[in-house]
## 1
Amino acid sequence: MSIPGVNNRMTRITNIRWMPVLFLLPSVLCYLLFKYYPLLSMVRVSFFRYSIVNPPGEFIGLANYTEFLTSSTFWQAVSNTFVFFALYLGLTFWIPIVQALLLSDIRKANAFFRFMYQLPTIMPAVAGVLVWKWMYNPDFGLLNYWLHFFGLGPYMWLNDLNITKLAIVLPAVFAGNGISLLLYYSAIKSIPTEILEAAKVDGASPWRRMWTMLLPNIRFIIVIQFIAFMSGVLLAYDNIYVMTQGGPAGSTTVVSMLVVNTAFQQSRFGISGAMSLFMFFVIALLTVLQNKISAEKD
Amino acid sequence: MKRTRMAEKGQRSLSFTAYAVTILFTVFSLIPVLWMVSSAFKSDKDIDAYPPKWIPQIPQSIRVTLDYSGLEPMEQADYEKDAMEATWFPWMKNIRENIGEVRITGIRDGKKIFQAYTESSSFRAGQPSIVPSTLFTDRLMDRKLPMIREKKLSTFTWYGDGGSDVSDGKGVAESALSSRFADFYGSSEIIQGKIATIEEKQAWTRMFDSFIAVNKIAMNAAGPLGFMKYFINSAIVTLSSVAIQLFLGGLAGYTLAHLIANKKWQFFWIMFFLATIMIPDISLLLPLYLLMKDLHLVNSLWAIILPHSAWGIIIFLFKGFFEQISKELLQAARVDGATEFRTFLQIVVPLSVPIFAAVSVLTFIPVWNEFVWPLVVNNLPQYWTFTVALNDLQNQSNVQQNMIMASSFISMIPLLVIFVFAQKYIEKGVAFSGVKG
């Protein structure tokens, strides 16, 4: 140890090995404390009939799981969740992609349009929902007012079992998704111009270039966005809660709403934890599946 | 220039479609925003009007002259009470109307004896406690008069005998609102003065009273700073969260990209961070709350800030960007004897301004707009962020829609400013951060 050269080498080795640990440690601690510890305590709670007065209460094994898996309310909520997923996918997911593709062709006032696309994104969600509640008002709302010019309506947007789900998705169609648009647009702009020029020389029309050059080149970011979109939609809560509180007749109650209601209204934390664990696995499974599919395509 | 013009077949139809679709989308997406802004300046009656009204109307100033001639002699306090009843009661009765201010002038034997003045912001802020319902009694005002004085909701100027002469008025103005006020005075057993004149004028300076009223309500809850207090809280929370994310996320992203040679370990740590994206935030609400309680952080801004230190996507973005920095450059710095931390600060950070800017903005927005967690973890108004305050405002039974719209409008401004100035950086950072594949 007293030999200078060896000592020097030792410190260098420790230097190289300890720096990453030191750099990662704060983040690792934060993730353990604010993500993994709460997650594990949730898993633990899901095996108990939780009692606030005397936590964690009585151990009941898998009873929480069997209870919600056999309840029709839960499966109704699961089906609602996936109907919402399908609606959002069909009506909203592709919108920022189309917007970005078309925006990339716009020369004049491009920055202005990009800014305008961001406006709905930066509107506070509470305010946005309030405005839409007014637009949906059957008596004096804007939508029924416009539709009556076409001889349609009046519709009971938020009280009609058949269209309430659509009414919850519709604001997202109007507002688009400013951040996603920006991501797609930046991805398109970072495609090397040589490729596009080459296609141009080969005689590909602008429409064709968009379809066969631009779109495939942003596939990676579409995949990433899809993962975020999937978990976002499957766990959607705020907008549905403020718009309908899950009504009418449970037609817009989704699983995340059930999770919150059983925990904070009925104080049944055990079963609530069990249900959110179920959602965690569903989303993890879908993400893995989705990764597999897109990997195979490559 | 010439070549592109003649060569491109289909360019015209594409450009046309691009402009048409883009304009259509921006117009549609602007409708809710425009409605919010215009509603901030409207009365509730106009907000619920059919067909919808887009242009706010100028509020009315109502000037009432009450004549006390021929009545029993009264004390100054009695006049004041009468003036307050004549202001607050009929206003409450017409609460949805677009009233900007009410002035009551008291005359006796042709001389002006007092003047009382109330603006709409004071009425909106004080109405829930002063006139909670339309059950008006003399006893009610006995109890409320001290509150009006203490909170300076109405001003009352007493002239006594020194008042000037008053010329004969023109009677009651011909409008629905004035005649409803006149009817109220005529049928009221409570108000003693006899109605002499009612004038109506436009008071455009009262257009902004929904904003002032929001501030006055906030002053009652959160102290002298008013709504500013919520903004300061939101700003502290957002800026600290972004700073923590930049520092911790940047260090961790750099480590993952350059300092871990072992592929297996690298993969493990990436999954360690990235897997947390799939944990539903909502399901962590309760365990996080209990954790904060154990740490004695409930009802503090730290409770909102700290969980933001663990956002999986941040590290992922940083890692993607840092991977594009050449290893040779870093190696050169190490050979020169720089410590890893110095290499990071003096070489990596200056090269990575776009990703730092992008991450700041991408996290600023959701943290600024965050709602459920601050609502759950802090229940004292002095620790509220503006979203919680906004929701509270919406839940108060007596608060009007225009005040909610006004506060939403104010809360958009910081984000608006950020977007105007930072748009370039966001786009650059996003383009660089590896998401292009």
Note: The domain at 225-432 of chain B is CATH 1.10.3720.10 (MetI-like fold).
## 2
Amino acid sequence: MTSSVAARDSLESRTQSGIAPVFDWFLVAAGAAVIGTLVRAMAFTPVELRQGPAQKIFYVHAPSAWVAFLAFGLVAVAGLLYLWLRDLRLDRFAESSAEVGVVFTTVVLITGPLWGRPVWGTWWTWDARLTLTLFLWFVYAGYLVLRGAIDNQEQRARYSAVLGALGALLIPFIHLSVYMFRTLHPQPIVMKPGAPSLPNEMLVTLLMAFASFTLLYVALLRARYRLSEARSALAHQEGGDA
Amino acid sequence: MALSALNAAWLIARKDLTIEFRTRTAFLSALVFALMAIVIFYFSWDPTAIPAGDLAPGVMWVIFTFSGLLGLHRSFGIEQQDRAIDGLLGAPVAREAIYLGKALANLVFVVGIQMVAIPAVALFYNVSVISVAPALAAIALLAAVGLVAVGTLFGSMAVNTRLAELLLPVLSLPFFVPVVVPAAQATAKLLNGRPIAEVDGWLRLLGAFDIVFVTVCMLAFPYTIEE
């Protein structure tokens, strides 16, 4: 208990010293990097022979999926660390990462059907990876609902940490149980033994997309984290729980 | 003097089951719900197009999931009355033992529903379960352990939130997927007369889920009842 009180005090002295500037240069830079990558993907990367222009959505879909998994992985890590160290900053980090992760998962779930329709001939299919992504969305949407349903800051942090860690543990089980349905997804094309099977220009665009989307994740995470610090500091000044 | 953890767990389970046996509120409502759902499901598709036997496994597992939730919520709901949970927390027993006791009582609850609902499905959907009874019982038990392991932990969390029972399904259902999918698939194979060797993979998945989630949820449980 004492450690969490100490954490709150140290936090208070930190947040009251400076108020985050309204204009977020980092976020603007990350947004510019993403737009730059998309321009390159649309105009300066060859069109795929069989799929045509529909394949362009790949440069949004795959990096968003990567960011979503990264974000949820970090929610689990931050949760476990919170249960150990009881530092509320870890909880704010987990909250921010979960929210950004849900946004990117939503992007994956929207771009997936848009791509699947012309290429697979169907909007939705109960393919292993699709289903897994959908359930991830459910788990972390539930995580956000749980956070909204608890007023006490410390209790909210504990419960979210438990759910965040269990959510990560659930992934292999959902994957295994839906894998029995034949998967339509392509096998790994970059991270596999041997040379990547993408032409060089496409590979460069893809790697740029991964980098810029990760940058966008960090920028959004940072912005969201500052928001929850500010919110907590404000609640503290008003004498309540954030 | 501290009780051994298993003894304490048994005492807690017996306490919950005694309360349930004397009031019978949760069990009866879950049971009536299960039977009504079995009947309503029958009218939700065209029986001339899909044979009843093909739908029976899915119906069975959807119903166990939802009627189980009714009992899981009550498990910690009864501890809210007069802050009975404080008595449990003040007792010289390990928190893990409280979890095991609660989970055991919930397991008896879910298995009790299954023991009535499986024969009811067999009757209303005209499928023969007698020839595959031992294998079906094994699947039902393995799956019930998985549902209860996760549900008991989330039940203890949900009851302390503003949304209370509304939150339990939101948290639990994604976690029930790796239980319900193998259980329903394995049940379907068995009812179609396939040999048990064909459901081996599903059974192992259920077993692995049980081992991992019983352990992890037991370890996580003390974090949900700190005061």
Note: Residues 5-17 of chain A have pLDDT under 50 and may be disordered.
